[in-house]
Amino acid sequence: MGAPDPIDLSDLEATPPTGTLLAILGELPEHGGKEIIFTEGRFRTSIFIQKTEGGVGVFLNFCPHAGTPLNMFNEKFMDLRGKYLLCRTHGAMFDPKDGKCVRGPCKGKYLRAIAHTIKDGAIYSA
Ligand code: FES
Q1: How many domains are there within the chain?
Q2: Residue 97 pLDDT more than 80?
Q3: Which residues are near ligand 1 (CB < 6 Å)?
Q4: pLDDT > 90: what percent of the chain?
Q5: Does some domain include residue 3?
Q6: Does residue 15 lie within any of the structural domains?
Q7: What is the rounded average pLDDT for all residues in the chain?
Q8: What tens digit of pLDDT does each residue of 54-95 get?
Q9: Is the pTM for the entire model greater than 0.85?
């Protein structure tokens, strides 16, 4: 079974409409990660953007193992080698290309990708 289809950000709780600017690629930090938290009343949605050698991934910040955010205290989502996305809770590692867990307690499951477009060096929700 392959990766599930990306979900539209606007289908999640507290999120902005399609076409919202999420990040300027050139303004991402050197480690390439950025967390974005949307809140509205008691609803909260966290997503993250991660730039890699192969491109850019946008995912719901929700580990398929136990549902925690992948990061803990900062916006770093990659492992030390910069090869896999890492969940800091129990160490699951995910392929940044498609979000598939390649090692750890949720091996074979996927992060949920967020549909997005990239235009003129900027990432927008799709
Ligand atoms: S919650 Fe992510 S590995 Fe357990």
Answers
A1: 1
A2: yes
A3: 63, 65-66, 68, 87, 89-92, 104-105
A4: 93
A5: no
A6: yes
A7: 95
A8: 899 999 999 999 999 999 889 999 999 999 999 999 999 999
A9: yes
How far does the centroid of ligand 1 lie from the alpha carbon of residue 100, in Å? 13
What residues make up the domain containing 60? 9-125
pLDDT at site 1: 73
Residue 99 belongs to a domain with what CATH number? 2.102.10.10
CA-CA distance, 28 to 65, in Å (whole number)?
Answer: 27
Is 4 a member of any domain? no
Residue ID of nearest Cα to ligand 1 atom 3: 90
Nearest CA, atom 1, ligand 1:
66
* DSSP bridge partners of 43: 40
Q: Which two tokens stand for residue 46?
A: 């966290």
Instruction: Write the single-letter amino acid at 116.
Output: H
Does some domain include residue 2? Answer: no
- Among all chains, which residue has been given the structure tokens 């997005």? 116
> What length is written for the chain?
126
Q: Count Cα atoms within 13 angstroms, Cβ side, for 33.
A: 21
